[in-house]
Write a structure and sequence with these properties.
The complex is a heterodimer of chains A (about 270) and B (about 325). Chain A is of the alpha/beta class and about 270 residues long. Chain A contains 10 helices and 10 strands. In chain A, about 35% of the residues lie in helices and about 25% in strands. The longest helix of chain B is centred in the C-terminal third of the chain and has 39 residues. The model of chain B has no long low-confidence stretch (mean pLDDT about 90). The chains are: A alpha/beta (about 270), B mainly alpha (about 325).
């Protein structure tokens, strides 16, 4: 049973000198509650990293720190340092807009805009200065092709995105995120609301996107983490318990709690 | 390969089935259930009855006095005579003040609602004070708005405008269409604010997050994602404000309405005649009640139809917007 859980491409997860994402001693407070406890982890370029752990363990919170979506919540305080490409993303002079352009996000509940399929992808492009019709057309086709949606929607680009199925909507959200060519894509349980077939397609897509993007994915589905991720971080009660190559986390974890969780004994 | 026949995989037919169905049947007449369903129906009928009585009474008595001449004539000063009177200036005045009011109340109301839902901290004391102020504004009697309009718009703003513009005679410092419209705008502000707030709150937070995560600023998110979605709700607020304002007389009493004017209002600083106020005049100032009664009914009918028409136009526009939002956006 354990054999099938090994990720397709086991990697060496030892951090190199210049990791793309460097999280160092990060703690996060909601008011007086400490939601993240001294997290330190380094994520490499063009790998898929899975954040796993029981509900409320802080994995989504950490994910949302990476594009500063937590800024939207009142009473959040963050300590420690978080660097992307060597730059502290919480430095005073950071342009959050530019950060979010480089760090895209796909949400748990597919949230296409109530606009046409074309306009959904065009939205981000227009925000970032792509104005010419020919450029827009080319970039939209490219992103829809890369998100494996083009063949299904090419004849109805100008009809409402809300008419798509749940899985198609989620792939459209991925197309929308990759259209502006970010370096990193954050995915917050992107397949948790999808049926198994749609989930499989999204997973295939993630493996495909890995060639170009660095992906961090939060998932409750342990098989999913095993199938698509290169590295896995296990969180529990706001702390990072274990981080390493996915194959190792799932077959030979160093920590007892990790083993209990991945083998389904709790969580 | 073994195949199962239905008799093998279906559970055996249960002889209890008949007993079960029998138990679901109501065994006795439920009086209270009958009583309350009857009561709610009667209450509804009562409301419908009142509305039908009012409308029928007005239509039956007013219809015969309505003619093209009636709605297209500017009457002489003696407008109590059914043969020569008309209500054109009142139709123009009422429409004009409602439209000018809408132009002011929608932007101010929408911007306030955007501040309250999108920008203000929901727990701050300032927000709570603003909310309480909006709610209290909705509870202020309309005659008080009229006095406020007189004191603030005419005697303060209007007078100062005249001083600044060096008008020898009062141009703005007197009752005028603009001040009546602004007074009505202040009065209907809570309606627009509450309706807009509700429609903003109904927009899934996921849409805002999606826009922000793509690198949109808060302003871009509000303008391009939030407001288009909220448009039908904002228009509902506008429709309610128009319905409320069209028939109001008290707020315009001191701020712009005229007993009689020989010509139509042409400028925002003009006074105007008004259907609602004219109804009051007809019913209290007439020298000959029997002669005036048909035109009184007709004027009421015209006011109802005008309010109705303004509503229909707004509802049609809203339906178009909704359809467009659903189809594309």
């Amino acid at each position: 049973m354990a054999e099938t859980l090994i990720a397709p491409t086991p990697v060496n997860a030892v951090p190199t000198a210049s990791s793309l994402i460097e999280i160092e001693n990060v703690s996060l407070y909601y008011g007086a509650t400490k939601a993240l406890k001294n997290i330190s982890v380094k994520l490499e370029e063009k790998l898929v990293t899975a954040f796993i752990g029981p509900s409320g363990c802080g994995k989504s919170t950490l994910l949302r720190c990476l594009n500063r979506m937590n800024d939207l919540i009142d009473n959040v305080r963050i300590e420690g340092s978080m660097k992307i490409g060597g730059h502290d993303i919480y430095a005073a002079d950071v342009d959050v807009i530019e950060l979010r352009k480089r760090v895209g996000m796909v949400f748990q509940k597919s949230n296409p805009f109530p606009k046409s399929i074309y306009e959904n992808v065009a939205y981000g492009l227009r925000l970032h200065g792509v104005k010419a019709k020919s450029d827009l057309d080319a970039r939209i086709e490219e992103s829809l092709r890369n998100s494996a949606l083009w063949d299904e929607v090419k004849d109805r680009l100008h009809s409402s995105a809300l008419g798509l199925s749940g899985g198609q909507q989620q792939r459209l959200c991925i197309a929308r995120a990759i259209a502006i060519k970010p370096d990193i894509i954050l995915m917050d349980e992107p397949a948790s609301a999808l049926d198994p077939i749609a989930t499989a397609r999204v997973e295939d897509l993630i493996l495909d996107l890995k060639k170009e993007f660095t992906i961090v994915i939060v998932t409750h589905n342990m098989q999913q983490a095993a199938r698509i991720s290169d590295q896995t971080a296990f969180f529990y009660l706001g702390g990072l318990i274990e981080f390493g190559a996915t194959g190792k986390i799932f077959t030979n974890p160093a920590q007892k709690r990790t083993e209990d969780y991945v083998s389904g004994r709790f969580g | 390969m073994n195949t199962l026949t239905p008799s093998e995989y279906l559970p055996e037919k249960n002889s209890d089935t008949t007993r079960l169905t029998r138990n679901f049947r109501a065994e006795k007449f439920d009086f209270w259930s009958f009583f309350f369903s009857g009561l709610t129906g009667l209450a509804t009928l009562f409301i419908l009855g009142i509305l039908a009585t009012i409308l029928l009474n007005i239509i039956v008595n007013g219809w015969s006095a309505i003619s093209w001449h009636f709605v297209s004539t500017i009457p002489k000063k003696d407008f109590f005579d059914a043969n020569t009177t008309g209500v054109l200036p009142m139709i123009v005045g009422t429409s004009f003040r409602v439209i000018v009011m809408t132009i002011f109340v929608i932007p101010v109301g929408v911007i306030t609602a955007i501040y309250l839902t999108e920008y203000a901290s929901h727990t701050s004391i300032l927000t709570r004070i603003i909310r309480a102020a909006v709610n209290n504004l909705a509870g202020v009697p309309s005659i008080v708005f009229g006095l406020f309009g007189l004191g603030f718009f005419i005697n303060f703003i209007g007078k100062n405008m005249d001083d600044l513009l060096h008008h020898p005679n009062a141009v703005w410092g007197q009752p005028a269409l603009i001040w009546a419209s602004l007074t009505l705008a202040v009065m209907t502000l809570p309606v627009v604010i509450v309706a807009t707030e509700e429609s903003l709150k109904a927009i899934p937070p996921g849409l805002r997050e999606a826009s922000l995560a793509l690198g949109a600023t808060k302003l871009e998110t509000i303008l391009k994602i939030v407001l288009p979605q909220a448009l039908p709700g904002i228009m509902t607020g506008g429709i309610l404000a128009v319905s409320r304002a069209a028939g109001e007389v008290a707020p315009i009493l001191f701020t712009g309405v005229a007993y009689y004017m020989a010509s139509l209002p042409a400028h925002l600083s003009d006074q105007f005649m008004d259907l609602g106020y004219h109804i009051f005049v007809l019913s209290t100032q007439s020298p000959n009640i029997e002669q005036t009664r048909p035109i009184l009914y007709a004027t009421v009918l015209v006011l109802l139809m005008l309010t109705f028409a303004l509503n229909i136009v707004a509802i049609l526009i809203r339906a178009r917007v909704r359809k467009k939002l659903r189809a594309l956006g």
